[in-house]
Amino acid sequence: MLISKQSISSGVSHLSRKAWLRGIGGLGIIALAIAMPVSLAKGATDEAGKSLFKANCAVCHGDDGTGTATGRALNAPDLHSEAVQKLTDAQIADQINSGKNNMPPFRNSLSQAQVKELVSFVRTFGKKK
Asked: Chunked in runs of 10, what are the mean pLDDT values of the chain (129 residues)?
């Protein structure tokens, strides 16, 4: 449905057209202000995931996700690999919680919120080429 200028001015007869348009612009500013904390929260989550990764995973997977000498000796996968990145978030979370092969389980040492942050951080390795 198209809205004509006439229907705008008749529908908002108590406001001038300029005031109405300023109101629309104001909505954009409000939307931006609402969305900004979400993006800031995501940045904080990314940093939390990175910190958790360094503390719990980097000893085998390396800071860059490609693996350390210790990790390679234990057959830790390169987190950039297609095999890892094609896993669902639930599968990655399950491997973090339950462990796999030589990887120990982290169920008792990490909260589910922390596991979720790690899953998000592991996903960042798939974006870097």
From this structure: 51 51 51 46 72 96 96 95 97 97 96 97 85
Which DSSP state fits 118? Answer: H
Of 121, 1, 123, 128, nearest to 53 (Cα)? 121
Tell me, what amino acid is at 66?
Answer: T
Q: Can you name the residues that pair with 100 across neighbouring β-strands?
A: 103
Q: What is the DSSP string of 4-52?
A: -HHHHHHHTTTS-HHHHHHHHHHHHHHHHHHHHHHHHHHHHHHHHHHHH
Give exposure, 64-82, as e/b (b: 16+ Cβ within 10 Å).
Answer: ebbbbeebeeeebbbbbee
